[in-house]
Amino acid sequence: MAESLRVNLVDKVALITGGKRIGLSIAGVLAEHGADVALSYARSRAEAEEGAALVRGAGRRAAIFQADLRDPEACDTLVGAVVNSLGGLDILINMASVYANRPFADLTAADWNATIDVDLRAAFLCAHAAAPHMRARGGGRIVNFGDWLAKSGRPRYPGYLPYYVAKAGAIALTEALALELAPDDILVNAIAPGPILAPPDTTDEELRSIERATPLGRWGGAGEIATAVLALLQSDFITGETIRVDGGRHLK
């Protein structure tokens, strides 16, 4: 489906933070449409290398960078490294995320910061660092990542308080950034994934339970997120929007 979108990204430069699993699919699709792609990783170097191989296999330039986005300075350093390596920056896709289950009674300030710093603050800081480079190239696109629950305003699963708050904040950040950056023709939107890829430790019963709870009756797959990202990159008039990609999960 992603290939049917006629998106011309030739010679555009994209940065994907936290580029593993779904990020690999996005990297490959962006390269197929002409973009050079940088991927950052915290610990998953092998997956970042895999993404870079997909990009190079499509005939485009790739670069990977290790970055601990819990460190505010790392965000500015990462963007600078991408610009120095690939010559500029047109597209920023903020995917870096911490997803950990911890009961409320056991939460600490460190747990809170570990999630908020990566899922929310790093998205802001990377956008702040990227905007001047996009402005210099006549505009750009920023795609943040929320979550279908935060978009729906329903914290359904206990144990993920910092994650839910961070993703709700990412949606608010998207709206505020869209207003701030519109004069520079930098469009800012968000994706709110639902059942796309199951965590590795998901049981067969859990898989089937999610399928039953999703109106379309299946998991989406990473390609659905890549398709949504391409649609946002294609548009010249959508900004400040969050798109749920959840197979109708929010309807039940």
* Low-pLDDT sequence parts: none
The CATH homologous superfamily is called: NAD(P)-binding Rossmann-like Domain
Helix content: 40-55%
Strands ordered across the widest β-sheet: 3-2-1-4-5-6-7
Number of domains: 1
Count of alpha and pi helical runs: 8
Judging from the principal axes of the Cα atoms, what is the shape?
globular
Describe this structure in words.
The protein is an alpha/beta fold and 252 residues long. It has one domain (2-244): NAD(P)-binding Rossmann-like Domain (Rossmann fold, 3-Layer(aba) Sandwich). It is built from eight helices and seven strands. A seven-stranded parallel sheet has the order 3-2-1-4-5-6-7, with helices on both faces. Strand 4, helix 4 and strand 5 (140-145) form a beta-alpha-beta unit. Helix 1 packs across helix 8 (222-234) and helix 3 runs parallel beside helix 4 (109-136). The longest helix is centred in the middle third of the chain and has 28 residues, at 109-136. It is globular. The mean pLDDT is 95.
List descriptors:
Rossmann fold; 252 residues; 15% strand; 8 helices; 46% helix; globular; seven-stranded parallel sheet; alpha/beta
Summarize the model shown:
This protein is of the alpha/beta class and 252 residues long. It has helices spanning 22-32, 45-57, 72-86, 109-136, 148-152, 161-181, 204-213, 222-234, and strands at 13-17, 36-41, 62-66, 91-94, 140-145, 186-193, 242-245. It is globular and about 45 Å long.
